[in-house]
Amino acid sequence: MAKSILEVKGIKLAFGGVQAIDDCSFHIEEGTITALIGPNGAGKSTMVNVISGTYRPDEGHVILDGKDVTRMPNYVRAQHGLLRTFQISREFANLTVLENLLVVRQGQVGESLFGALFRAKRWQEQTKELVAEANDILNTFGLYRLRNEYAGNLSGGQKRLVELARAVMAKPRLLLLDEPMAGVTPALIERLGHHIVELNRELGVTFVLVEHNLDVVEKICSRVVVMALGKQLADGTLAELRSNQAVIDAYLGGGARERVGS
Amino acid sequence: MTLILGYVATLLVTFFTYNIFVIGLNIQFGYAGILNFTVITFMAFGAYFYAVFVMPHADNSSQVFYILGLHWPWPLAMLAGIVASGALGYLVGLIALKRLRSDYLAIVTLATGTLVYGLFGNNNKLFDGWSGLFNVNQPFQSVATNHPNEFSWIFVVFSGVVMLVVWLFANRLYASPLGRSMRAIREDQDVVDSFGKNSFKVRMLAMVIGSVIVGIGGVLTIQYIGALSPAGWTTGETFVVWAALLVGGRANNLGAIVGSLLVAVIFNEATRYIPQVPSHPNLIPNLRNVIIGGLVILSIWFRPQGVVPEKKASFLEVPLVDKYAQGFPGEEPGGTLSPAASEA
After folding, report:
1. What is the value of ipTM here, to two decimals?
2. Mode of pairing for the β-strands spanning A82-84 and A174-178
3. Running DSSP on this structure, what letter comes out for residue B128?
4. Are A128 and B315 an interchain contact pair (Cβ–Cβ within 8 Å)?
5. End-to-end CA, chain A
6. Mind listing the pLDDT tens digit for each residue in A201-216?
7. Which residue of chain A has the CA closest to B186?
8. In this structure, are A69 and A185 located in the same domain?
9. Is A159 part of a structural domain of the chain?
10. Which domain holds residue A220?
């Protein structure tokens, strides 16, 4: 078995009387693309927030690379290569597309006050290199022409691409995508899927996708984790899950059964 | 002639100090999105602490009371004033920046201002209460002895140089990766956190830097006038600084300068010298506030980004060949995603 890059163990989290996550455990293998599916209210987004460190669970552990990060604030986790995107595009609206990418690279010389003031030559040089790197990424995503546009002026689909491009600029090892395909055209879904697979193959980025579009899941994800009512219900390939009665009842049931072609 | 020259000098010093206030606020609000509704309190902190460090021990027989009275040389006292102002910024940041944003943060700053104002005004052992401090030692007194305006003009040069340093500092900060992080935090703090930057720390930096700069302006103010009482730093003064930033253009230090010229100098200071109407002594000052308020409304209505808007970032770059200049394979040309369409 490949090495687990991420493990969640016995996570419990309640909001008031709502038990959003109720003793949920699973693990993610390094270098894979895993889908996290489940009906609305299953706790998928909450789980993404727990993994990324936005929420602290009431119980349980998040283990990144064999290291317990449960008590680590989100920005420290991100420094370890655990990055995420958001369900709704959250670009830096009044920064240009290029700046959106530049800002997320960690460890720039000019990020400390001392560096910003007294090592200007060094950060100017570094920025030049980063601009070249960012332009390359933007070109891959077809956003090169828009690099000097304010990100807030882009269309919904373009913002989705900026989100992914920005995440790539931050050099993730594990990237959590919270519904990256929500509200985009089929043509763009195709392209986003293509980019994800390419990033996985070429840069070795491990992906966890929260996704409702099972066609996409089938195409790009090697493994699927199903959540329902805050628990991990099953995992395996989508083909295996199609014959799993619990999964069918909880999620695939009704019309969806025919859609996935079982 | 002497009178006019003295007046011009005063206007220039006012212009420079307001520039410094507005740049300080610009770093907090324009860069990092921190709503500081008590700018003037930081000015007062800088001024008062400069005063009590530079003045000799309080002579209680004259019924003037204040703390410290260390009689330090003025450059050291200046530093003390600036540090005090920065420390207040740090304290407010500790209380407010960790948990609060936007409006709630604004409320905390407003409350801080009211608290400090009430405390300093009502407690006459601290900074002599409502009567305030006067006869504060001014710099350059030993050299400026020949002519009544000599001090004023030396001070014009001094405050101009200080302003220039602040301006260069603020612009370098803006262009640096740290400044970019601040602007990203202004746009969306959570996202900056989720990309591995400690946004609390960056916001705290902006808060303290801004407070320090406003404190510098405060020290200059009391150095020039030689006196300060709570009547000189009411909440209304904060909004003159805000008006200058909003009218001039936030997140652009040139806008800060244009704004302080328009609002702080032309509308606020220059109109002080319009002759009073004897039967209505408050008419002119009230009209001034009305006009400044109107100016803010007009500028937000017609030019929300200010007279000099934030500059779009541009970088020296090696042009690339656009891989998708013709749109994307499998997508209609001119579809929503093709870059060509969005440029049209």
Report:
1. 0.90
2. parallel
3. -
4. yes
5. 28
6. 999 999 999 998 888 8
7. A92
8. yes
9. no
10. 4-91+170-259
